[in-house]
């Protein structure tokens, strides 16, 4: 298996933050144990997205937590972010790597056939997307379930990031099924106490991995 040091991945959605300050929520999450953050704000225009990315990068640099940018290659490069996450309708992973070889690149797996493609092969991690049905992203293809994680795990050595309705209750089972890292939006962004929610998720992960 290729090395992947991250265990708890916060994917942002300001709309899930219950009206609280976005940067406060992210900072609390990091203090609680989030070790990787992706800026994913579908509602923002390009200028607002770039502004938010710059400010988020500054915050995360203080904690030594890498920033991944969703979809926007130029924003990721301009902000000096660690990497990029793309889906099937975004810039192809091979094209991203050609332009930016050191990019920490994530690619969402929505069909089993994608695993055998050059796009999956050049990516640094694969997102099992979604593991469970979620209100946060409804336009999905395959709801993988725990069996889907195990099936993907048996067919690739790439680090697997699981995403989709992951919470404190199912976190351990998702790791036990073969995921290396858990990605969440609402379990942290919408939690009453984001730091505590992150710490509890971390603890659930560590119970399986230690
Ligand atoms: N991709 C697949 S599911 C999802 C994304 C961005 C949303 C996950 O959100 P939540 O609130 O953790 O279910
Ligand atoms: Mg995308």
Automatic annotation (TrEMBL):
GO molecular function terms noted in the UniProt entry: magnesium ion binding; thiamine-phosphate diphosphorylase activity
Known cofactor(s): Mg(2+)
Binding site for 4-amino-2-methyl-5-(diphosphooxymethyl)pyrimidine: 38-42, 70, 108, 137
EC number, UniProt record: 2.5.1.3
Keyword Endoplasmic reticulum (UniProt): no
Gene3D superfamilies, A to Z: Aldolase class I (3.20.20.70)
Binding positions (2-[(2R,5Z)-2-carboxy-4-methylthiazol-5(2H)-ylidene]ethyl phosphate): 134-136, 185-186
Biological role stated in the UniProt entry: Condenses 4-methyl-5-(beta-hydroxyethyl)thiazole monophosphate (THZ-P) and 2-methyl-4-amino-5-hydroxymethyl pyrimidine pyrophosphate (HMP-PP) to form thiamine monophosphate (TMP).
NCBIfam families tied to this protein: thiE (TIGR00693)
Similarity section: Belongs to the thiamine-phosphate synthase family.
Protein name in UniProt: Thiamine-phosphate synthase
Organism listed in the record: Deminuibacter soli
Gene designation per UniProt: thiE
């Amino acid at each position: 298996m290729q090395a992947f040091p991250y265990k708890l991945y916060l994917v942002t959605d300001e709309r899930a933050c219950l009206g609280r300050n976005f940067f406060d929520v992210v900072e609390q999450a990091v203090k609680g144990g989030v070790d990787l953050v992706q800026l994913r704000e579908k509602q923002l225009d390009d200028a607002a997205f770039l502004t938010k990315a710059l400010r988020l990068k500054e915050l995360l640099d203080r904690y030594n937590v890498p920033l991944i940018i969703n979809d926007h290659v130029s924003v990721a490069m301009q902000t000096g972010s660690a990497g990029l996450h793309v889906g099937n309708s975004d810039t192809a992973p091979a094209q991203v790597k050609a332009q930016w070889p050191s990019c920490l690149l994530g690619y969402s797996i929505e069909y089993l056939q994608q695993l055998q493609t050059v796009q999956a092969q050049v990516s640094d991690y694969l997102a099992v997307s979604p593991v469970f049905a979620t209100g946060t992203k409804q336009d999905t293809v395959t709801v993988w379930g725990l069996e889907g994680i195990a099936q993907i795990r048996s067919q690739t050595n790439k680090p697997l990031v699981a995403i989709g309705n992951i919470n404190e209750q199912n976190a351990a089972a998702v790791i036990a099924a073969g995921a290396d890292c858990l990605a969440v939006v609402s379990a942290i962004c919408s939690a009453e106490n984001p730091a505590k929610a992150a710490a509890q998720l971390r603890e659930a992960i560590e119970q399986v991995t230690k």
